[in-house]
Amino acid sequence: MEDRFVDVAIVVGIIAVIVLKIMNVITISWLWLLSPIWIPLCIGFILSFLLALYFFGTIIIDKIKEN
Fold it and tell me: Torsions phi, psi of 27, nearest 5?
């Protein structure tokens, strides 16, 4: 029950800040306003890319060692 309340409170807070930005009450840039969304996404993409490089690198090294 508490988890649901926290989730709703976070969503309401995000919506409130976006509405305040649309109404020009706050002047922060859209880039930084939406940064809690795009920064974790970018970090996830970068980590996924690095993990894929590591994974495929180990496969290639194992194939080279077999020959």
Answer: -115, 15
pTM of the predicted protein model: 0.63
Q: How far is CA 12 from CA 32, 41, 50, 53, in A?
A: 18, 21, 35, 39
Contact criterion met (CB below 8 Å) for 21 and 35: no
DSSP annotation of 40: H
Contact yes or no for 21/33 (Cβ under 8 A): yes
What are the residue ranges spanned by the domains of the chain? Answer: 1-30, 34-67
Q: How many Cα atoms sit within 13 Å of 2 on the Cβ side?
A: 0
- The per-residue pLDDT string of the chain (67 residues; one tens digit each, 9 = 90 and over) reads 677 898 899 889 989 998 999 999 999 899 998 888 899 999 999 999 999 999 999 999 999 998 7
